[in-house]
Amino acid sequence: MILTVGNIKGGVGKSTLACNIAAALSFQGKGGGVLLIDGDKQGSAADFAQSRADLLGEAGFTCVRAQGKEVVNQVVTMRDKFAHIIIDAGGQDNPSLRAGLAVSDKVLVPVAPRSFETWALEGMAALIEEASITNAKLEAFAVLNLAFPRGSDNSQTQDIIREDYPNLTLIEPPVVQRKAFSDGAGQGLSVLELKPRNPDAIAELIGLISGLGVNQNDIKVIYNGRAA
Fold first, then answer.
1. What percent of the chain has a predicted confidence (pLDDT) above 90?
2. CA 199 to chain centre
C-alpha cells in the first residue's frame, strides 16, 4: 500500500495518524517493511522516527525526508522494496501533497469536527479529483480525527462528508482526541505500545487501518504484536 495522509487544512493531526499507521504496519513483520516519507517542512514524522530509535534502539521502519518531486522519486525508487509506503504530506496545498497524490494507491484525509474544517474539504476534494485524472487507481478516504468524546459535532461533520463528498469513503469509528495519541507521539510510540494501555485508542487505530483495506488477519498480527 502506498498511502498519502494529507489535507490542505493544518492542525488536523495528519502527522500523528501517519506515524501511528507506519508504526503499526511495521509490526506485521512482512518482507519489505514500511517506509515513512516525511514531506512536511515541520519534520514531525522524522522527529517521531528518531525518538523511536532513541527509545527502542531502532524505529522499526525506514524514515526519509523529501519535498515535492523528491517524494515521487522516493516512491518510484523504493516501492518494490517496501510492503507499505506512508507519506506525511504536510498541511497545505503544497508540492509534497500533490506529489503524494500522483503516486499513491490511497489518500487519507483527516477531518476535525469543526465547521471551518469541513469548508477546507472542498479544496482537498478538488485536488483529489485533479490527481485522479492521471492516477486513476487513487482511492480517497476520510476519517474524523481529533473527535469530541461526546456531543453532536461528530455526527454532524460525518453527515457533511457523506452527503457533500461522496467520493471520500468515510472510515469509522472516529479517532477521538485522546491524551494517549499525543503522549505516544511525544515519546516516539504508537498507541499500541504506550503504557498504560488505552483500549479505546487502540481500537480506533486498528479500525482506521482496517478501513484502509488492510487484511483482517494482518490486523490481528498488528494488534497481537504489541498486546503484551
1. 80
2. 19
Cα separations (Å) of 139 from 1, 102, 115, 169? Answer: 11, 12, 25, 8
pLDDT of residue 27: 87
Reported in sequence order, the residue ranges of the chain that DSSP labels E, i.e. its strands, are 2-5, 34-38, 62-65, 84-88, 106-111, 139-147, 169-176
The answer to whether the CB of 170 falls within 8 A of the CB of 121 is no
| 2-225 carries CATH number 3.40.47.10 | no
Q: What is the DSSP string of 157-182?
A: HHHHHHHH-TTSEEEEEEEE--HHHH
Asked if the model's pLDDT at residue 119 lies above 80, the reply is no
> What value does the CA radius of gyration of the chain take, rounded to a whole number of Å?
16
Question: Is residue 174 within 8 Å of 148, Cβ to Cβ?
Answer: no
List, in sequence order, every beta strand (DSSP E) within 92-227: 106-111, 139-147, 169-176
Q: Which three cell numbers stand for residue 89?
A: 504530506
- Largest Cα span, the chain: 46
Distance of CA 134 to the CA centre of its chain: 22
Mean pLDDT of the chain: 91
Quote the pTM value: 0.94
C-alpha cell recorded at residue 141: 478516504
The SS3 assignment for 50 reads: helix
In angstroms, rounded to a whole number, what is the distance separating the alpha carbons of residues 46 and 119? 29
